[in-house]
Amino acid sequence: MTSLKTDSQSANILIVDDQIPNVKLLEMILSRAGYSNVFSTTDSRQAKPIYLEHDIDLVLLDIRMPHLDGFEVMEQLKAEISDDYLPVLVLTAELTSETRARALDSGAKDFLTKPFDQLEVLQRIGNMLEVRLLHKQVRQQNQILEQKVKERTAELERSRIEIIERLGRAAEYKDNETGNHILRMSNYSKILAKAAGIADDEAELICLASSMHDIGKIGIPDNILLKQGKLDPDEWEIMKTHVDIGADLLSGSDHPLLIKARAVAMTHHEKWDGSGYPNNIKGEEIPIEGRICAICDVFDALTSARPYKPAWPIEKALTVLREEKGRHFDPNLVTLFESVLDDVLAFRAHHLDTDILDETITND
Predict the structure, then answer these.
(1) Full-model pTM
(2) For the chain, which end, N or C, has fewer CB atoms within 10 Å of the first or last residue's CB respectively?
């Protein structure tokens, strides 16, 4: 690591003074002391552009100047770098208490009185640059740490999403609904949520939550879950408990995703007219994520091939959604689903179950 002294000598220094002799004198003092990156202007209006272009580490700034005085220049710089350290060394021939107070209030860190004393100039510049460079090092280190935190957070988020998706698929692997059903219906849910005016981040939560809608099926006995024929009334009552099991598995957390996932698991079999289960709630009493999931789950189930049935044509599945408007499904959401059908089918086309060759993908 280079020393602070070496870093200081390569620092970018800007001299702003309308008097050419003052500028030349300071340039000479700095050059002889080994400072290699010195910029100067006698026009105070150029201070801000030069400061920004060259990432200036220290400004030697006169107070009494035409066009913009030193106070106005400092105000301009403060507006540009409100989140940074303003490295200004004020040059003045009359350091009254009023001038000092106003300069400090404007952002100045130190003062040099005219006529200049070479030793004092170098000492004050050296001190200010040491503080400035230490500040930059701390800031850069903070930026590195912030970036590492962001990367780690993103990695944890990716892991969290992957675990959630795999958890959702766990129930499907025990059931007959294998393949990309979870991926498709959860993304259909996101598309429909956005169509319903739900914000992108909330729609993303609904997408992830929908992937766990049937997680409770892992608690249903295989002889019922995998039964090929029609369930008898007792078996059907046991099957319906998968919503309670799922809600129980997802309960007890204050995380927004798990709260929403619990709502989806508990309500995706409720119906608009109140004839669903487990609580026979109806209409907008059913959380919108549950209403969205119900449509997307049924649509994908109908249009996907299963060991016990072929895939239905798209139009036939849409007919079912239309017929169930106001009974099973939220009428407005069915209409919205049809309005984004192109997006749904575009996603579907890239996520078909490749192991099922007889799936029908046309509208015939």
Answers:
(1) 0.59
(2) N
